[in-house]
Amino acid sequence: MVDIPIPPIQKGQVRVKIKAVSFNPVDYQVRKGLSESKMVTSNILGRDFSGIVDEVHEDVSDFKKGDEVYGYVCNLASSGTYTEYVSLPQEILAKKPLGLTNEQAAAIPVAGITASIVLDKTRTTKSGSMFIAGGAGGVGTFTILFAKKMGVENIITTAGNDRSLDYLINYLQLKKDQIINYKQSDFVQHAIKRNEGYFDIAIDLVGGKMLAACCELLGLDGNLASVVDPPDRDSFEILFQKNASFHSVGANAYSLSNNRKQWKIYRQILDRISKFYDDREMIKPSITILGKLSVDVVRQAHELLEKSFVQGKLIMTV
What is the distance between the alpha carbons of residues 173 and 155, in angstroms, rounded to a whole number? Predict the structure, then answer.
């Protein structure tokens, strides 16, 4: 642990005393020099948080000291969220759902924002059929919850072990016939048979061979979104032959703009999610609290994420 100064607040910024943080795969990817690491300007990792407003700049009107908030810091904050205080633009901050603890709220931002963008890009409607590669992870969880909230019933996802199967059935309330064991060599054909045809929507949250499988599973004029990889040449040819659309989804994309109006998209999505929870229209996030801010807790979380031994979200208190 290292002592660093409390970050100052600049024009348009809010400083938050962090209460809880969740872990995401992007955290260890940045640590390893992958993914978003080229855009990171702080040595402090972390993207999600929930906490209390500690101070606001004099020109900030949307928040006041003492407000309970949560958010995704993107690459716009004074640092990542594995710390006690963070300063960030008011546009990317939102009021915490009233019915959730700080630990539960911290589980939402990255995964919830990503899932919301995925469903928007794939033009999800309640009548469409949906295949999700990796439904038991953080983004997969919110993708399933939000899709079900929209009325989508025809959802099929993957699991590779009993823990994931149990999570999908008992927490996300899927039926056993909505879950395919991706370790079976012919799981693509099993999925098509279960769906009684190709899918309107395919969502890849895993990458690699699962993205290739999503391309095979997609039907004519279908929509595919991936938060991991672009299709290789062979997979893109499959999409081309199906007149299908591919959408890359990166939750950080809007933060790369210098247009503060673009940054507000984060708050708009989080405000919508908060309303789901405030109106009790959504089951509370599934979380595992690993402990308080420390190097050991961070190390444990990253090891679990790298081994894919996670259902729901891992949380660290501060």
Answer: 11
Strand partners, 218: 199
Name the CATH code of domain 111-248 (choices 3.40.50.720, 3.40.50.460, 3.30.70.20, 3.40.50.150): 3.40.50.720
Please state the pTM of the whole predicted model: 0.94
**Per-residue DSSP letters for the chain?**
----PPPP--TTEEEEEEEEEE--HHHHHHHTT-GGGGG---S----EEEEEEEEE-TT--S--TT-EEEEE-TTTSSS-SSSSEEEEEGGGEEEPPTTS-HHHHHTSHHHHHHHHHHHHHTT--TTS-EEEETTTSHHHHHHHHHHHHTT---EEEEESSHHHHHHHHHTS---GGGEEETTSTTHHHHHHHHHTS-EEEEEESS-THHHHHHHHHEEEEEEEEESS----HHHHHHHHHTT-EEEE--TTGGGGSS-HHHHHHHHHHHHHHHHHHHTT-SPPPPEEEEEESSHHHHHHHHHHHHTT--SSEEEEE-
CA distance 224 to 96: 31
Each residue of 164-218: pLDDT tens digit?
999 999 999 999 999 999 998 899 999 999 999 999 999 999 988 999 999 999 9
Instruction: Decide if domain 13-108+252-317 falls under CATH 3.40.50.150.
Output: no
Q: How far apart are CA 295 and CA 316, in angstroms?
A: 11
